[in-house]
Every structure is written in structure tokens, then in C-alpha cells.
Amino acid sequence: MSDLEWFFREEKRILDMPEEPDEDYLARVYGYRPSEDATVAHERGTSEAPIKDADRPRELNVDMSESLNEVQKVTVPPEDLHINQGMTTKRKSSTERTVDPSVRHSKKRRLSPEHKKGSASVTLAHATGSASDNPDSHELHQTSVGPPTDAAGPQSPVARPPIQQPVVKETTITSPAPDKGKAREHEANHVDPPLHPYSKSTGRIIATNNDKQPDVPSPQQASDDATRTTHARYSSHAKRTVKSKVIEVSTANPGPAAAPSSSSVTTPAAPGPSSSKVSGARAKKAEEPKPKTDALKKEKSGKKKRELITPREYAQRLQDNLSEVAATRKSRASPYLRGKRIYYHGGDMQYASEETRKRMDYIIRYGGTVVPTYDPEVITHIVTTEKPSAPAFLRATGLRSLRDIPNHIPTVTWSWVIRAPRRVIPETPVEKGGESTDVADNNKGDKTEQIEDSSSEPTADYHLIVHAAFKDRLDAGMPPPPSNKGRSKPQQSATSAASGPSRPTPQEPKSGRDGSDTSIISEFTVDRVESKQSAILDFDDSSFLGKLAAGPNGAGVPGRATVTDNPKSSLNNKSDSTPEVDSLAPFYNQARAEREAEDLRSGLSSEEESAKEIGNGGKRAATHAVSKKRVRRFVHVFCRAILTLIQGFLCDSKAEEHTACANQDVVNKLQELRELHKAKLSKEDTWKVYTYDKAIRALRSYPTRIRCYEEALAIPGIGDKTAQKITEILQTGDLRRIGYEKTEDIEAINMFQGIYGVGRQTAYKWYANGCRTLDDVRARKGGIKLSTCQEIGLEYYADFLTVPYESRGAALLYYTGDDIFNRSLRLKANKMGYSLNQRGLYQGIVRNPSNKLEKLNEGTIIASETEEEILRILGVPWQEPHERIRG
DNA sequence: GGGCAGTACTG
DNA sequence: CAGTAC
DNA sequence: GCCC
């Protein structure tokens, strides 16, 4: 939370920053004076002596023989290509096992050079020659580029204010000379917040030449939807074992994400959703003071003119017309909002905006009730826009503080509403195991009911994100600190909770259909301890716990029984005192069972002990009262213990399909962030990447949708910060941090890193030397040097990035065959009246008789997606890639 | 506060 | 051996 | 950034 707040503050600060920061401003904010830096820059500038492109001989005037040798080798097995990379022995350590290659291979590359050998030999020699030409250029650049460490690394916000003067540019980027590594590290230490989100934006390097980034998809973005990955296994040469080939091809449409980022230094926000979000938020803020105009504007833009009406009036009207609306609703929508009496807050509070109306309509359409005014006695939910303004909300509701919102009333954002129905569906798969081990009939009953009723009853996670709208209310429903009165919750909660003993999770709409939903609320309301239970019991349902507890079968079920009974008893029996005692009780049983199981598996870890400890602590506390912290801790430890159990060691299980994942969206975001850190040089970032890797891996293999902060935190490898980020993603669907980190330089560097054999150091160096695009690199702009390996990597980078998915077959063919094979294949195709290129096999191409190269029409593509298809048409028997060598 | 995998290649 | 890369 |  504090992290988030910090970001918000930072965001504001940056946004408030003048375009061209003046010295005073910088001095004030950073305690820094540009003039100083300029001096430094100047000093350094002397040694800079930019190596002009023209000055350097680029062509292969050197011993091609040697390089060709390399090439020859390359031509056979890929390993030889990796000459200078340490990856020969193994790709990763056992722990890192290839559980999800996509993490590591999330970049576009990893072209196993094997496939390209044929053609590689052609291009290679040239490259090698040039590379060896400038033995000294390397040194030169290092010194010239590496800034005095005290001046600031790219990471140091303090020392890296936004400087736009070209002079400084080169110096602003740090390509730490080897010997300066230490100093850099040191310096990195006083970057106060682990990572200054604006370090980049404020201090980032400005392109010397304004080469606009071409539309080269940046690695990370292509990695997701826009890309498909074809993993094909090809056996290679005799002694070589099977190697995996990964060709990543992008779909024809790079997608919006590929849009180049804006270059403005003062708008750190990256392109895409994040930026729009930010600005959206800002716009909203600005909107508040002068709602009228905005409303008018909005209305104007709307197609038909509507009378101005306040949200309240609109809601009222809906209410009044309920019956007729309901009638229309029946036909099409499932009433999953039935029983929910929603107070909607958002947008323009003076006049209902288009959006507001739509949303209200939506609520009605799906069976909910729109309550015009905030009335805690009536409403069951508060729904807000994605980023509600607390002050505005308070104004509208007349509340003094967000704390005045009763805990039993969830405050959720609109996305919660629209995601609710979807959430239900995919969540069901896990239940099976639970059933098998679990005995509870009523439970089963619930399930069936839940299923048939799935449209109307969201699953548990639904409740656990409940107070998402206002971060300040995240603790709502948490076990109240020792004081006991929080317990005297709304009557309904007690009743409903009691009514649904079958299941602690709020699934059951059992009782009154209409009032049913209140049970959910009450469930959540009773206190957080219980809601925690819900979460955990959900695990239970999800089978793993059940399975684990199978041994003490009696015990396994009891766990549930206890739990189930528990809320009831606590509510019924003890109107006030120490209800928490019981709420924790089920955990003990479970924990014990877990521990036993754990012992059995000898996978014992310290978790066990802490779990025990906590358990005892919990017990102790039970006699008094359970502190919030303790409960949290307990939940944390407990969840983790379970995870340890169910997951075991990574090496115990095969690599899972890294396809669908319950938290895929979160994974994607984290991965994106990981990539951004990967582009940075500091040790700190290095470790962050390491950590993100672990976290992502853990998240991937996590079986169910994460529901709350604590749940995330419980996952080994996910700590406070990451859990917060996850929470943010869950709640907002976005991670602001990404926007802050994603800057031009980072993206360029990332792109360079996409080249096989290029890591962050090299990428940085290139950038520092003025390279911004792959073409720059090809042109050896700034006098950069490329190793043989990098040459090849570069050669094929674009190819692999730009092969449209549909063309993968043809592309594979193209890349796996050697020169001769390809030529012959194409020749045959031509003879047969087709035309083959790397995009596909075409038919009906008419060429100009006098100029064969000139196509008179495009022809029609008849095959491209698979190699088999193409070969079949051409009447060529299938051949493994290694069999396609003719040269 | 310190560790965070292990190994190979380049220069 | 340090730096770099995977 | 996480964990011990």
C-alpha cells in the first residue's frame, strides 16, 4: 500500500514537473543542479571522440577463413554456435528447470542457430570481418561512454534529472566500464526506494538522432496474444540429441501494444492502456470541479440528445420501470446480479453520463437493483468507477469517512461487476478432486446448485476482492482488533450465515432467492477471519487439501465440518465474546493434518514450525482475542504450508503446460515488468528479475485464481511487494509501475537484448553509442562491435519476429532448409506452377514473360501453415530439418 | 544484512 | 581473472 | 525483490 501511495505521489510529482525543468526546480526536487552535470559531461565529452561510421572499415577485409570455419561448424550443430555463450551444458539449473520456458524465452529469440545455418554461412563472413576490425573501439567506447559513477547511473533519480541537451546525452547513459561496476553498485545503494519509477523518465537518455523507432515489435509485447509460438522439436545431427527449436512468429497484426512509445520526457507514462489510464484518472479529477461543462460535453457527443438527469434520478427511473425492464431482461441475460442492491457511484455526479446510464442499465438487466441513494440499510453493494475519488464519494454519500461504510457492504469497482459472471465459469474445474475426497453431501449439493446456478452466484474470490474500490477500505471486514463489538453486525448477516451452514463459502443462494445474496455479504461481514476461512476452504474444495487430508479422512472432513459449524456457533452461541476462537479452530485441525502429511513427505521445512508456532499462538490468542496481525500471519503461514505440500519441489513434477493459467493476466503483467527490469544494469534490477522469475513461475503453477493479498503473499516467492502488485492487477487490471518503467530507452535496450547473444551490458552499450534501432545496429552506428554470435542473432532477429503466424510452416521450411534445399524446393514449386517463399506456397502467380521477376498478380496462397502441407503439395516426402541439408 | 546456480567463452 | 551471457 |  505504501508502495502504491508512493507511486501515486511520484506520479503526481512528475506530472507536475515542468516540461523543461529549470535549474531551480531540479535543485528543489533533486537537490541537483544541471550545471554540475554539464561540467561532468563536458569533461567526459573530451574523450568521447565519436567514432564515425565512415571511418571504420566495415567490409570483410579480414580473415574470413576463420569466420568461415566458424560458420561451417555452425552449419552443423547449434552448440558450436554458442561458442561464446555458456549455455552449452545446460540451459538452466535444476531448480530453474524448464518449468516454464516461456519465462526465459519470453523474448523473441532463441533461434537455435541450427536452422539457419545454411543461409547463415552466407551472411556470416561479412559480419565477422567487420567485428574484428576495431579492436580498440571497444575500449574507446567504454571509457567515453561510461560516466563517472558518481554522476549517476541510469538508476539514480537523484543524480539524473531530465536533461535534454545533446551534449549530456551520451553521458547520461551509463555503460559501466567493468572496473566501475563496484562503484555503480555502491551508488545503486542510495537509490532510495528500491526502484525509482521515474529514474528512467527523468533521467533517461534522449536519442541523439531522432530516428524514430521503426515498427519493430518490442520483444515483450509480442510475447503475448500477438504472438504464437511454435515449439517444434527436431532431432538434429547424429550425436546431438534432440534440440528444441523455438520459432516465435508474430501474427500479422502486431497489435496496438506495438505502437512506439511517445518520446516526451515529461510524460513518463508509456503508451497503451497504462498511459490512457493515467490520463483518464487525471481527467476525471479535473472533471470534478466543473462537472456541468463536462456533462454537457458528454451529452453533446452522445448521438441523441438526452435530457439532463442526475444519476440519482436515472436510477430512480430505472427503479420505477423495473418491471418492464425486467421483462426485457428475462429473455437475454442471466440475472446474476439478482438480489444485489447496488449503489453506484462514479462519473459525473451532477448529470448521469452515458457511461453511468449504461452501467445502471446493465445492473438492471442482469437482475440487480440500482439504489438511487446511499442507504446502508438498503444497499448490499457499492459499485464505483475504477478509480473513484474518495472525497467525491464522501460528498455524494454524505459520509464523513470511508470508514463509515459498514463492513458488510462491499465496495467494488465496475470491473468487478462485469467480471463476476465470467469468473464463475472457469473456476469450476478444480472442484472435482474435492468431491472425490470430500464427503460433505451438502457440499456437493451446493456445488451442483452452484453450477446450475453459476450465472447467479459468483465464486468465493468475488468476495475477497470485495473492498477493492477504495484502497483505504481494503481492511474492511478484517478481524477487528481485539474489540469485540464489530460483531454485532446487521441482523441479516447472522441469519443468513446461519442459514447456510452447508458451506462457509458464500456460494449458496439456498435460502431466499432474493435475500440470498445477503448471505454473501454477511459471510464477508462476520469478520475477516471467516472470510479467510472461505478462501482456504475453497482450497479445500479445490481438492488438494482434501486429497492431502485423505489419510486422516475422518479428519479431512471434520476440518470442514468444524469450519462450517463454526461461524454458526460463533454467531449463535456467543453473541459477542471471542468468536474468533472458533473461527481459528478449523485451521488447527487442518494445520495438523498438513503437518503430518508434510512429515510424511519429508518435505519438511521451516514452514511447519512456524505454522505450529503460529497455531499455538492462535490458540493462545483465542483465549483472549486474535489480533489482526496474528490472523494474517496465520493465514499466510498456513497457505504457504499448504502450498509447500501440494507443490513439492519443482523438480518433482514435469513441466506443466504453460498455457492457460488461472492468473494469466497477472503473469503477463509481471512478465512485462520483469522485462523492463531486465533492461537495466544495476545489480538490484538483476535480482529483481531473478525474483520476478520466481514469482511468475510460482504464479503460473498456482492452480486457482488469486483472490486477495494474503493469498498471493502466501505463495513462496511472492512477497509483500509482488503481492501488492498482484492485488493491483486484480483490482485494476493494470499495473501502473509498468507505465512508469516503460520508457524509450528501456524498450530499445530490450529490443537489443532480443538479439541472441546480446545481454543487458551489450544492449546498453549500443544504446549509449547511439543505436536506437536494429538498423542502427546493422549499420554499426556508434562504432559498436558485434560478436560472431550476435551477428547471427541480429541477422535473424527480424525474421523471427516478423513471421506471421499463418506463415509459420513456410517459414520453418525456409529456415530449416539450407540454400540448396530451398532453391530446389522453390524450383520444383515453380515448375509445378506454384511459387514458394517464406510466407507460403502460392498458386496462380502470373509473371511477366519478359521479366520473370515481375509478378503480374499476387496469386493465391494455398499453403503456409504447416510444413507438411507444403511438402505434400509439392510432392516432396517429409524430411526432418537435419535432412534438409543439401549443400 | 547478506545471499540469491553454475558454467563457459572472450578479451 | 573480470566481465558477460545463458 | 524474496527469504532466512
Automatic annotation (TrEMBL):
What segments bear the compositional bias annotation Basic and acidic residues?
A: 36-61, 93-103, 179-190, 284-299, 429-450
> Could you tell me which SUPFAM superfamilies the record lists for this protein?
BRCT domain (SSF52113), DNA polymerase beta, N-terminal domain-like (SSF47802), Nucleotidyltransferase (SSF81301)
MF terms in GO:
DNA binding; DNA-directed DNA polymerase activity; metal ion binding
Q: Where is the composition biased (Basic residues)?
A: 230-243
Biased composition (Polar residues) is annotated at: 199-211, 489-499, 563-580
Query: Which residues are annotated as active site?
Result: K725 (nucleophile)
For this record, the Gene Ontology CC terms, alphabetical, are: nucleus
* Principal location class: nucleus
Cell compartment(s), UniProt: Nucleus
Residue ranges of every copy of the BRCT domain listed in the record: 332-419
State the residue spans of region: Disordered: 36-314, 427-460, 473-518, 550-582, 595-617
Bias-annotated ranges (Low complexity): 250-276
Q: Which UniProt keywords apply?
A: Metal-binding, Nucleotidyltransferase, Nucleus, Transferase
Give GO terms for biological process: double-strand break repair via nonhomologous end joining
Q: Which Pfam families match?
A: DNA_pol_B_thumb, DNA_pol_lambd_f, HHH_8
Family designation: Belongs to the DNA polymerase type-X family.
* The protein's name in its UniProt record: BRCT domain-containing protein
Q: Which organism is it from?
A: Rhodofomes roseus
Q: What is the lineage of its organism?
A: Eukaryota, Fungi, Dikarya, Basidiomycota, Agaricomycotina
